[in-house]
């Protein structure tokens, strides 16, 4: 299995939520709630280790996203 985290991380920091969720589901076999939980955990992790990569704060991230 190839490491898909760099690709997932790129989607997360660039506000591409659905592609990130799709990769999480495909790679790890997550159902939708599990993928959302993994996405949230990774997003929080990235905000800690790469805060400069985010262009909006956590309160604005994902605004107007409806699944």
Features:
globular, mainly alpha
In oligomeric terms, what are we looking at?
single chain
- The low-pLDDT segments are none
Q: In total, how many domains does the architecture comprise?
A: 1
Biggest sheet details = none
The gyration radius over C-alpha positions equals 11 Å
Beta fraction: under 5%
Give the helix level as a range of percent: 55-70%
Number of strands: 0
Order of helices and strands: HHH
How would you sum up the global shape? globular
Between the first and last Cα atoms, what is the distance in angstroms? 28 Å
Main structural class: mainly alpha
Supply the number of helical segments. Answer: 3
Integer average pLDDT:
90
Descriptive report:
The protein is mainly alpha-helical. The chain has one domain (4-50). Helices cover 58% and strands 0% of the residues. The protein has three helices and no strands. It has helices at 5-13, 17-28, 32-49. Helix 1 (5-13) packs antiparallel against helix 2 (17-28). The longest helix is centred in the middle third of the chain and has 18 residues, at 32-49. The radius of gyration is 11 Å and the shape is globular. The termini are far apart.
């Amino acid at each position: 299995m190839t490491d898909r985290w760099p690709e997932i991380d790129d989607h997360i920091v660039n506000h591409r939520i659905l592609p990130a969720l799709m990769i999480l589901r495909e790679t790890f076999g997550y159902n939708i709630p599990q993928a959302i939980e993994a996405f949230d955990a990774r997003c929080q992790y990235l905000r800690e280790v790469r805060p400069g990569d985010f262009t909006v704060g956590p309160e604005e991230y994902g605004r107007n996203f409806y699944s």
